[in-house]
Design a protein that fits this description.
The chain is an alpha/beta fold. About 35% of the residues lie in helices and about 20% in strands. The protein is built from twelve helices and 14 strands. The chain has helices at about 25-30, 35-50, 65-70, 130-135, 145-160, 175-190, 210-215, 230-235, 245-255, 280-290, 315-325, 360-365, and strands spanning about 15, 75, 80-85, 90-95, 100-110, 115, 120-125, 140, 165, 200-205, 220-225, 265-270, 295-300, 330-335. The strands form three sheets. The protein has a ten-stranded mixed β-sheet. A hairpin with a 5-residue loop joins strand 3 and strand 4. Helix 1 (about 25-30) crosses helix 2 (about 35-50), helix 5 (about 145-160) runs parallel beside helix 6 (about 175-190) and helix 7 runs parallel beside helix 9 (about 245-255). The longest helix has 15 residues, at about 145-160.
Amino acid sequence: MSAPGDTGRGPADAPIDLLDLTRAGIESLVQGWGYKLFHGRNLFKWIHKHGLTDFEAMTDLSKPLRQRLAATCTVALPRVVLEQPAPDGTIKWLTEVGDGQRIETVFIPETGRRTLCISSQVGCALDCAFCATARQGFARNLRLAEIVGQVWYATRRLGVAPSNVVFMGMGEPLANFEAVVATIDILRDDYAYMLSKYRVTLSTSGIVPNIARLGIVSDVALAVSLHAPTNALRDELVPINRKYPLEALVPACKAYLRGDRRRRITWEYVMLDGVNDGLGEAKQLIRLLEGTPSKVNLIPFNPFPGSGFATSPPERVEAFRQRLLRSGLVATTRKTRGEEIAAACGQLVGLVQRRRPPLAGAAARGAEGARP
C-alpha cells in the first residue's frame, strides 16, 4: 500500500483514488502531468470543499485536464449500507469498506456544535476490557480515503460540514499514524474543511512513542483513554498500559502541550461500578495528574452483552466529580448520546472479519508507525 499523499496507483490498470491523496499529493500528481500547482489545489477544493466528484463539472480546470482525470482517476466514495437515527438527533452510519468489513461513524448534534466521531481502523487491537469494539477484534487499518471519506459523506448528507471531528470511533488512531495524520491535514486545510486545532481531537489509549511523533507534526487536541489511576488497575482495563505505563504516558502527554497554558489534556475515564469509581481512586487520580494541565471527562459506562461490568450509580459519579473539582481539576460528566442505536462511547462494533490477534501484533506495529 502506498503512503497517504503519494501518487502510487497500485495495479497498472487501477484508477487513482483522489480521496487517498492530501492536497500536496494531488498537486504533485497534476504537476507530474505538466500542469501548474494551482490546478491541483483547485481540484482538491472541488472534491472536499464543494463535494464534487464529476470532473466535467469542475469548470475552472482545463478540458484536457478534466479528460485526463476522467480517464485515470476516481473519487471512491464510502458505501453507506445503513443509517440509524436516534431520538436525540444522533445519527450512526454503517459503511462497507470492502472484503465484508464494515465500520461505524457517528454524528452528534449539540447546541452550537456539530460533532462527527470517525473510525480509523476496522475493529481495534488494544483489547480494552470494557469496550464493545475491542470484543470484535482487529482486521486492518483504514486507508486515508476510508477515513476522510467518512467526513466527506457526512458533510454531503447533512448539508453542512461538522464543526468538530473526533477520532473516537473504531480503532486506535495512533496505531494508524500516517493515514490519521494525513486525514488531520485535510480536515485543517483551508481548501477543505477548515477546522482549527481546537476542533479536531485525537483519542488514544496511550501509544507513547506516537504521542511524541504526533507532537512533531501536529498540535490538535489530545484525549487519552485513562480509565484507571494506577498501573495495577489500568493493566487490567487497558492492556497497552503493560507496554507504556503511567510513568511514561503522563509525561509524554504533558510534553505534547509544549508549555501552552491555554491547552489541556482531556483524560477519558469510564465509570465502572465498584471497579474505579470510589473516592480512593479519585484521590489517586488527583495525585497522578498533579502538575499536568488536565480536564477529566467522566463517562458513564454503556453496557453491552457479556461485558462483565455495570454502570456506576449517578450519585457515585457525581461524588467522584466533586472530589476532583475540590482539588482544582476541571471535571465534567459526559452526557450519553445515541445509546438507543448503540452509538454511545464504547459501543461501536461494525463488522470485523479475518481478525488478527489483539495487542501484541497490531499494537506493537502501530507503536513503530508501521501499517499492515
